[in-house]
Amino acid sequence: MPGKIVVIGSLNMDLVGCAPRIPVVGETIVGHKYFTEPGGKGANQAYAAAVLGGRVAMLGRVGSDGFGGEMRANLEKAGCDVSGLLTIQGATSGIALIFVADSGQNSIIIVPGANDLYSPADVEAGQEYLKGAALVLLQLENPLPTVLAAARAGKKAGAKVILDPAPARPVPEELFELCDIITPNETEAAILTDLPPGGLNPEQAVTIARKLQARKARTVIVKLGEQGCMLVEGEKTQLVRAPKVKAVDTTAAGDVFNAGLAVALSEGLDLPAACAFANRSASLSVTKLGTQIATPSRAEVDAFIAGA
Q: What is the side-by-side order of every strand in the sheet holding 12-19?
């Protein structure tokens, strides 16, 4: 049986409006499409890990509104254990207001709502939800003290802790030290090492990974988009290439990568093989529109691997 994956993180309802362009300050324009979709980096990773065949539990907080119930039901439908996903009475669920231009550019406002009410004390009180966990997945959309408490709880449970440092912001060395693997993308890796954001080649990714290791990070996997990922494990480095696909929407790629990585590790694959599985899962996700709805099924990924 695969090891248990516990995701501790955020849940937001994405409210997406599409228009020819993004309005400037004080301007009202007419859009041509609107839709809602469950999101939030924590929920995205939990949903994707379950769809990819993992044994997954989601820990987090939602409000007592309709969005909270909808996000809970969506995770349950994917096969996630949501017994640790609690509702805060009187609070609103997290939302993301997303404005998308026809050019593909977007502008986003996140209102954390109940996500900000998930406290370190809540994490400590919920340690029983981590019993038997093989892997714990974290992100940075919850308050930083809560993320630190979650990393400590994961280590206490004997789990391997994986941190997706997104959205990028300054983090203490203690968090790096508590995590077994960190998975920044190109922009996040640069910001975490005080470098200007921009595209990285594999050699630059190694240099940045070494800087993160100097800050107590252990294994670093730098996500390089269509190039694949750079795995830096101790002194060893390896570029794990991604298959070539026609990208339609890259929004889901980072979260699907982390979900695929966790699923593969939970099934006993080594890190290079897990990175290859994560790359293939993420590559398939960019061929579809959306976030959670863009996650490929395990059957789709297995068929993709067989045909590679």
A: 33-39, 12-19, 94-101, 106-111
Q: Which of 64, 63, 56, 16 lies closest to 39 in space, CA to CA?
A: 16
- Positions annotated as catalytic residues are 255
Q: What is the largest CA-CA distance in the chain?
A: 56
For residue 216, what are its two tokens?
């107590």
Q: Rounded to an integer, what distance in angstroms lies between the CA atom of residue 61 and that of residue 71?
A: 11
Asked if residues 229 and 257 have their Cβ atoms less than 8 Å apart, the reply is yes
Expressed in angstroms, the distance from the first to the final Cα of the chain is: 27
Is residue 49 within a helix (H) or strand (E), and if so which, with residue range? helix 41-51
Q: How many CB atoms lie within 10 A of CB 36?
A: 12
Q: Let me know: does 101 contact 125? Beta carbons within 8 Å.
A: no
C-alpha gyration radius of the chain: 18
Tokens representing residue 86 in the block: 């609690």
Q: Which two tokens stand for residue 67?
A: 């969005």
pLDDT digits 0-9 by tens, 4-26 = 999 999 999 999 898 999 899 99
Per-residue pLDDT of 211-224, as tens digits, reads 999 999 999 999 99
Tell me, what amino acid is at 95?
I
Model's pTM, two decimal places? 0.94
| CATH superfamily name and code, 4-11+40-91+115-307 | Ribokinase (3.40.1190.20)
C-alpha dist (Å) from residue 177 to 42, 158, 162, 213: 21, 15, 11, 9
